[in-house]
Amino acid sequence: MQDDSLVSLDKQHLIHPVTNYHAHEHRGATILKSGQGAYLTDSTGKELLDAFSGLWCVNVGYGQESIVQAAEAQMRTLPYATGYFHFSSEPAIKLAAKLVEITPTSLQHVYFTLGGSDAVDSTIRFIVNYFNSLGKPQKKHFISIERGYHGSSSQSAGLTALPVFHRHFDLPLPNQHRIPCPYAYRNAQDTSPEAIIAESVMALKNKVEELGVDHVAAFFCEPVIGSGGVIVPPKGWLKAMQDCCNALGVLFVVDEVITGFGRTGPMFASLAEDVTPDLMTMAKGLTAGYAPMGAVMMSDAIYQGIADGCGPDAPVGHGYTYSAHPVSATIALEVIRLYEEGGLLANGQAVTCHFEAGLTAMLDHPLVGDARSRGLLGALELVANKNKKTPFDPALKLSERVSTAAYKHGLIFRAFADNILGFAPALCYTKEDFNLLFERLKRTLDDVLEQPEVLSYI
Ligand code: PMP
């Protein structure tokens, strides 16, 4: 039984992220109670297979006891240490060094945040400071990709190029610009990797020229566009974007908040693509959702530029109370140990074939028009007509129908508003978990297809 008093209190007082408030008052919350491995249990006792790792973050699965023990020990020893006044803590130092070891060689310095949005916001602040320090104050324009997601804080939400994050928020800012998304299924005339890469490179060059090379500070991108619908650019795309940035003198920032920590196979997508970003953001898989934490990493050149620019006495005026929190840092160290020594990175890579095969097999379903993935990050796109790729009428509220049916069948994934279903299973998944995922998914889509309103649309 769901606890009605909790549902009622939730409606009265708890504001939910990226939610229609009135719809929530009407619908009420689904309260989650516990988790183990890839499975969650809600407050009615219903067991659910989580195919989205919470919010693409619980990469190690739920109930990892060694993380709990490490966090408990750190809380007993030292629950908090500030980084102000030259203080530091052992876990924070070890984590910074570890991140330098496992990320591209270009990244030498780490600033810790509480999550991804403030990692992107901090990155923007560091870049602004850097160009002011260099005596290039006109370099203040930022470019991102349509459908890209970089957070929902005041500045990061402007780089996020999804209308719902701008509407009524007076965004994007005048110095935030976008280029088209390398969306093979929808945008491309020629879907060959070469054509898609060439189109993005040309769009970036044109945008930089339009704004003036001396005015563009940085280009931000995700290796796989996540919240914009799991759009997977071809291999070689990321490298081509870096080469283009380097040639134009524009900083290249890779946002690995979703793609980091084994999500696409390697520890970071940038490693597989052989790119050396000027700055990188990360969060989610860093602590696998066991505590809030994110990070910005930067090259030595940027660090030195900022350090020199502030002069001998003044501090760099950027800091959070909870930056480099020792409990979060301890958790991150244990999570990274589980990826490496605990074998989770290797397991994720080994089971990816079952994920890919399952997604591809779903193309036989009448509702599925596209299946795409990289590593354990994937999507299905639902269409009313496969040949014409006709999207469903938004009035049909297909994503809600799919989520409701999936829940009934004991499956959680993300149904985006535009008919895209996103999947991000944990790295601890087994072959049997994947069998169950696709069995439940097929039943879900069959249920939706049988609904008269949906049938009549096809
Ligand atoms: N960047 C990317 C690529 C993300 O996917 C997200 C979150 N989905 C963020 C930034 C923002 O992270 P957070 O929600 O932790 O603030």
TrEMBL record:
InterPro entries in the record: Aminotrans_3 (IPR005814), Aminotrans_3_PPA_site (IPR049704), PyrdxlP-dep_Trfase (IPR015424), PyrdxlP-dep_Trfase_major (IPR015421), PyrdxlP-dep_Trfase_small (IPR015422)
Keywords, alphabetical: Aminotransferase, Pyridoxal phosphate, Transferase
Gene Ontology MF annotations: pyridoxal phosphate binding; transaminase activity
Record bears the keyword Transferase: yes
One Pfam family of this chain: Aminotran_3
Cofactor(s) annotated in UniProt: pyridoxal 5'-phosphate
Protein family (similarity comment): Belongs to the class-III pyridoxal-phosphate-dependent aminotransferase family.
Protein name, UniProt field: Adenosylmethionine-8-amino-7-oxononanoate aminotransferase
